Amino acid sequence: MNKDRLYQDFIQLLHVPGISGTRSEVLTAEKVLSLLEKMPYFQSHPAQLWRIPVPDDPLGRFDVAAYLELNPRAKKCVILSGHMDVVGVEEYGHLAELAFDPEALRERIAELPLSDEARRDLESDAWIFGRGTADMKLGLALGLELLRHFSEPGSGKIQSDLQESTQSVLRGPLHSEDHGDGKTAAQPTVQPDIQARTQVDPGTDFSQEEKINPPAVLPSGLSCDPGGDYQANILFLAVASEETNSEGMRAALPFLRQFFEEKQLRPSAFLLSECFEYREEDPDRETARYIHVGASGKVMPAFFFVGAPAHVKEPFLSLDPNLLAVEVYRRLQLNPAFSQSRDGELTPPPVCLKMQDLKELYSVSTPLFAASYFNLVTVDLDPEALLQELLQLARESFVSALKQLQERAEAYTGRFGVKVASSRMLPLVKSWDEAYAEAKKTYQLRHPQAADTLDLYLRQKVRGWKEEGLEIQAMGLRLMREIAELQAESRPMILVGFLPPYYPDIRPEPSDPALAELLAAVRKTMDFARQKFSADLRLKKYYMGISDMCYTGLSQSRDVQPLLHNLVGEGLIYDFPAADLKKFHVPAIDLGGFGKDFHKASERLEKHYSLDILPELYVHLLEQLLS
User: Fold this and answer.
1) Would you tell me how many other CB atoms lie within 10 Å of the CB of residue 391?
2) Which position among 92, 320, 461, 620 has the lowest Cβ density within 10 Å, counted as fewest Cβ atoms?
3) Predicted structure pTM score
4) Closest Cα to residue 228, out of 73, 78, 41, 39?
């Protein structure tokens, strides 16, 4: 393992912005692809590199896959994976332009308001600061260096191979792209405007090497030993847009399913190299390092509020939807009753991500609509039970809002002796599934001669919203408004559903022999870490940060339909890959570096464990999984 080269790749990747949900994501993907194309193995096997486009993506984002075939007769394959995008840099303020340059940032980051702990880490010189240091450019650089390590001379698995270079068995959707240097790489067929390379600044070329001598090219005819000791191969998968809606991992699933079916391989392990981060309450936060098996999931409960507008001179005739939203907020925000515990892991309570009324123009009328949605982390989700709890919470909120409205009217009368005009209202709460079914009937009644259906009408709406560049959560709220306006009863109500994306929690299955095989190798690596580095490496049941491990399979017995039926825009603005996840299943772990303050201006990576120890742990683990 060449740690100097690993570090140089890491710094090069940090210099490329790759902000999630922007065109700069394409730059990171191009950089990853260019580093792969410079590797001797892939110069000899260009057909084992792929671009995997995100479908219908106006930004032209794509995943990158690379297949290292160590033994053509092997039936197992280990997946190395990580995401290429990072969050924005607004937190850096006037230093935002330095966020992707660790050396320059280090000289000036003290100008920002840092915590005492962050200042101590800065002064210690044991940490690298910058956007993407912990989340997660190191993981990408590590995956690239592992491909080099296991393919280059010196790994003990390279010998002369007089056979023809192995060609991809994936046919049809792939074509060869000429890179202008005599090499070709198999590429998915996509529209030219989608696949076109994206530039941030004229003249900027992030595909070029920085401060690194290219590795020596293998002599012609050298490739991985088809009769070597390894009994498994490696697939490297760098995915787009994990920080927003995991468009990249969802786009990769059909590719993975097709790849493994046509190669007749079994995915034996999914190794995610996302950094771990301690919780403040962790008693061993200074000494322990972690491997996570399984992953927490996420749902986003969404509420759409329909009020009763009135002129402000008659406020007690109105029902402000903001009042309904506040009552829901009071009951759900940070409510520990909605936290979950499993196998010693505890999820954080729900947090509101957005709450707003939808009144666009000024007037002296009270608003008609409001909406809110929350982040809810899961480790043991029962979709139907959660939906019923949320519906009950909405009913209680509605009753409380009406009670407050009545009490305020009575208090006004009591103080001034004036009887105020008010209206009597009854609570009305509906699930998204229930409201959508009613809306379909109403649409047909209102448009009896129309050839289109509600589904077609909404698809046209969604097409226009996408052209506006709306994110899927904003489109989801607009869909809720459309459905609310199509209810048979025009009265105050609360609609309850879930906004995408949905991340299923992944629970370790003790009876899974593939997982048992992976964990046996993991425990040997833990022993290796203890013996060679005196490192306290521990196994935890769930990775508590939302990650693409959530898309490594669903058991056949797991029923997610109650949630999908109430997932706003499922099939319109979002497609949950339930069928692919039922067919593609692989045991997964997260083994990454040590980071702090993800998504903050003080994001940083600890050097010694992450750059010195972790690479050797990966080599040790892979030697077992491949042998």
Assistant:
1) 17
2) 461
3) 0.86
4) 73
